[in-house]
Design brief:
- The chain has about 550 residues and is mainly α.
- It has three domains: about 100 residues, no CATH class; about 120 residues, no CATH class; about 190 residues, no CATH class.
- The chain is about 50% helix and about 0% strand.
- The chain has a two-stranded antiparallel ribbon.
- Strand 5 and strand 6 form a beta hairpin.
């Protein structure tokens, strides 16, 4: 049976690599080796520690060479679409900034922040000011291992969300149900099986209408000091009692026929919102719905009756009993025998190597594993924001792989996180396969390959293997190939597969003695032409395998 019983023995390299792939965008050989000597409990104490300081407090505008997020700009009406669409390139720069932050975080924080983004989905594309996207993701980062219930309230009042799901237009004279519907269906309790006309088990259509009434009068606010949230230090929306429905709200039997008393003042609007969220989070199905999402994001897409009974329900109980704190739930899941494929359920389904990497994970793991140096945002901001972020990330890799960081296609998030029965297989379809397999070629050549132009950075294969922290003995061809495969693939390949990469790809039929001779000659002459070609070819081949697509 599937089991949440903790694994207590030392991880070793294979399981340490599994844990790091699933919990961190910053995947390196050195980090795997560090965690390999630890138990899951010890490893998670490090992974769930406070995240390191940000690389940079805010993005740089390559036109001016200065940050702009906290620099006053012209304030515009949130309903003025021309104004809201201005500075589109800066929205791309915010995306690039966050990409750089997530690949440098050596904790679970940014991976959890990304999970929260897939739950509370918004998009920077044509939504709000540039600063709104920045504030929104700062909020997710703050609550990455924090209180999910509290975050839900903060998200409800978040300017990007207020605009994205139109709650800034939700007024008592003309209620807008958009955010209320998604709050129930996607962000918290989930629908459940439909059991009648407008009755989805966990809530009804009438509940959506009543929820919209609760949320009337919560509006977008400009980035002014009076609208800074005292808890987060971030800008938030505002309340307007004149636009709020002050009547009592009565919910269905799905919520025990709860009646929420209407607010009598602006301050009381927040009490009413708290009562509404208390009602949602009192339902055990809310905890279960979020735990299913966590399981699919970090463990495996398939949830059958056994997983529901032995994993989801106990996790949900932990979640609810801890007042919706995320840290206890994640610790219990990631310490479990089930996560490491060491329970009886392991004979039924393979957890290790059982998920397809997202384009974000493909890219992040490549850059960090091979220590690819991105252009410096401050000293080479044009190369980072225009060449790498706009030219490569947005217009090439993310665009062609069907993934745009922080901009999912729909409010339901990226298809891989919500579309059954394919789930993560949605990452791997005919129209998105090629750029995934070309990532090694692009980075070793500094060419976008599929769209033309440069990446603005390059993978230095010789510098990588020459570092003994990466390859223990670079003059031994067998060691070079085996050590790369050990860390790049979730499971060590068969002898035939190793033989193929060693002899057919790396040595091209030559002997291991030939490689040793060429490597020693390179060290003597510093002429790398005869060793770079096979080393680049090996990396391109390894990153273009089905094995590298998995984690």
């Amino acid at each position: 049976m599937a089991s949440l019983t903790p694994k207590t023995s030392v991880l070793g390299k294979r399981l340490a690599a599994h844990l790091l792939r699933r919990t961190c965008f910053n995947y390196t050989k050195q980090r795997v080796d560090e965690l390999a000597t630890k138990t899951p409990n010890q490893a998670l104490n490090e992974l769930m520690a406070a995240p390191p300081p940000l690389q940079l407090t805010e993005p740089i505008d390559p036109e001016t060479g200065r940050p702009w997020i906290n620099t006053p700009e012209t304030i515009c009406d949130p309903d003025d679409l021309d104004c809201l669409s201005s500075g589109f390139s800066k929205k791309i720069y915010v995306m690039g900034y966050w990409f750089n932050e997530l690949i440098h975080d050596n904790t679970i924080n940014m991976k959890m922040a990304f999970f929260l983004h897939t739950n509370f989905s918004t998009s920077w594309l044509n939504t709000g000011r540039n600063e709104n996207s920045f504030d929104h993701h700062q909020l997710l980062r703050q609550f990455a291992l924090g209180n999910f219930k509290t975050l839900t309230k903060k998200i409800t009042l978040d300017n990007l969300m207020l605009l994205y799901l139109n709650n800034h237009q939700n007024r008592k004279q003309a209620p807008n149900e958009n955010y209320a519907r998604e709050l129930l269906e996607l962000f918290t309790i989930g629908k459940g099986p439909q059991i009648g006309d407008g009755d989805y088990t966990n809530y009804t259509e009438d509940d959506v209408k009543e929820a919209a009434r609760v949320l009337t009068g919560f509006l977008y606010a400009n980035r002014e000091a009076q609208y800074i949230d005292s808890d987060t230090g971030l800008y938030a929306g505002r309340s307007a009692l004149s636009l709020h429905d002050t009547g009592d709200k009565t919910f269905s039997s799905a919520f025990n026929n709860t009646v929420i008393t209407g607010a009598t003042s602006k301050a009381d609007m927040y009490r009413e919102l708290d009562d509404f969220l208390d009602m949602i989070f009192d339902q055990v199905e809310t905890a279960r719905h979020i735990c299913r999402k966590l399981y699919r994001h970090f463990v495996h897409a398939d949830i059958n009756d056994e997983i529901e009974r032995d994993i989801i329900i106990p996790l949900a109980n932990t979640f609810k009993n801890n007042n919706y704190e995320l840290a206890p739930v994640m610790a219990r899941l990631l310490k479990s025998q089930h996560f490491y494929n060491e329970d009886d359920y392991g004979s039924t389904i393979q957890v290790i190597g059982g998920m397809i990497k997202s384009p974000l994970e493909i890219l992040a793991h490549t850059i960090r594993f091979f220590d690819v140096q991105l252009p410096d945002q401050q000293t080479d901001s044009n190369a980072f924001y225009k060449t790498f972020t706009s030219g490569f990330l947005r217009n090439t890799f993310f665009d062609l792989t069907g993934f745009m960081l922080n901009a999912p296609d729909t409010v339901a998030s990226y298809p891989a996180y919500h579309q059954a029965p394919q789930w993560d297989c949605n990452w791997f379809i005919s129209s998105t396969i090629i750029p995934r397999y070309k990532v090694g070629q692009m980075f070793t050549t500094n060419r976008r390959v599929l769209t033309g132009g440069t990446l603005g950075t390059q993978l230095d294969s010789i510098a990588y293997i020459q570092n003994p922290a990466n390859i223990s003995n670079a003059e031994d061809a067998t060691v070079v190939v085996e050590e790369m495969m050990e860390y790049l693939f979730p499971e060590y390949p068969s002898p035939d597969r190793v033989e193929f990469f060693l002899n057919d790809i790396f040595l091209e039929g030559l002997s291991v003695f030939n490689w040793k001779f060429e490597w020693i000659k390179y060290l003597d002459t510093n002429n790398d032409s005869d060793v770079r070609i096979p080393t680049d070819a090996l990396i391109v081949a390894l990153l273009g395998t089905p094995e590298f697509q998995l984690m």
